[in-house]
Specification:
The complex is a heterodimer of chains A (114) and B (133). Chain A is an alpha/beta fold and 114 residues long. Chain A contains 2 helices and 7 strands; from the N terminus they run E-H-E-E-E-E-H-E-E. In chain A, helix 2 links the parallel strand 5 and strand 6. The longest helix of chain A is centred in the first third of the chain and has 19 residues. The radius of gyration of chain A is 14 Å and the shape is globular. The relative contact order of chain A is 0.23. Chain B contains 2 helices and 8 strands; from the N terminus they run βαββββαβββ. Chain B is globular and about 40 Å long. The chains are: A alpha/beta (114), B alpha/beta (133).
Chain lengths: 114, 133
């Protein structure tokens, strides 16, 4: 199972193009990681005035994925680039307004807490 | 890319407070890490009660029991002491600007290898692999 969570500024990605973006993510996963992998895509809309970048209102979308362990950097980089290219092409957004990540499913994050 | 999600009680912070906190978080992060300011992302999510949120840079859920919670994600490579220094700075800023006791704010910072992220069309370099300017 591959899971992507797309966190987008409200109004930035209209509902009408989200299905096309999901299909593009599915296609990128198939091409970069192999066929027959189930892909799930969820969306979070950040309301206006609730998202910031460098302290200023943000127009940046975050597309964060969890993929099965074991892929090399070539496959991961291909996935990142194909998702990014498709996202910008379909949404009309700028590269500078998009972050794409793909982490191993088992990665724990090595966190600290206070 | 640093990504800080602030879980806050509904209607607790107005726009000016959120903007000031986002700027203060950027100051804290860039003051300790020397990252470019526009790398720092801060988002606020209003919640009804304590609970849990998925770790943006890890695989599990982050449970919290304070009214305000900071769920942070950074690139891997910093020592636990530096990560705690950043987190402590963020907690202090949120507490001060929101005018709430520090005990009402908790947080967590996870890390992700830089090369697992693409920003502005470029896969990020691991620490020490940055190109010379």
């Amino acid at each position: 199972m591959i899971e992507f969570l797309c966190t987008v500024p409200a109004g930035q990605i209209p509902p009408a193009i989200r299905g096309t973006l999901v299909r593009a993510i599915e296609q990128a996963c198939g091409e970069a990681l192999g066929p027959d992998l189930q892909v799930k895509v969820d969306w979070i809309d950040v309301p206006k005035g609730f998202g910031f970048r460098g302290g200023e209102p943000s127009k940046t979308s975050l597309v964060r994925g969890k993929i099965p362990d074991g892929y090399d950097s070539e496959a991961r980089n291909r996935l990142l680039r194909e998702v990014g290219d498709a996202w910008c092409r379909i949404s009309g957004g700028k590269e500078d307004e998009l972050i794409v990540s793909a982490r191993d499913r088992s990665w724990t994050g090595a966190g600290v807490a206070l | 890319m640093p990504y800080y999600r602030c879980l806050i009680p509904k209607d607790s912070l107005d726009y000016d407070q959120r903007r000031r906190i986002a700027t203060a978080f950027t100051d804290v992060h860039c003051g300790i890490s020397a990252a470019p300011r526009n790398f720092v992302h801060v988002a606020f999510f209003e919640v009804d009660k304590f609970g849990a949120i998925a770790d943006s840079h890890g695989s599990g859920m982050l449970e919290f029991g304070t009214p305000y919670f900071i769920a942070g994600g950074n690139r891997a490579g910093r020592s636990p002491a530096v990560r705690k220094e950043i987190l402590n700075g963020l907690i202090n800023c949120l507490s001060e600007i929101a005018s709430v006791p520090k005990e009402d704010v908790s947080g967590h910072i996870s890390e992700l290898p830089a090369s697992w992220t693409m920003e502005a069309g470029e896969v990020l370099p691991e620490p020490g692999e940055e190109p010379d300017c």
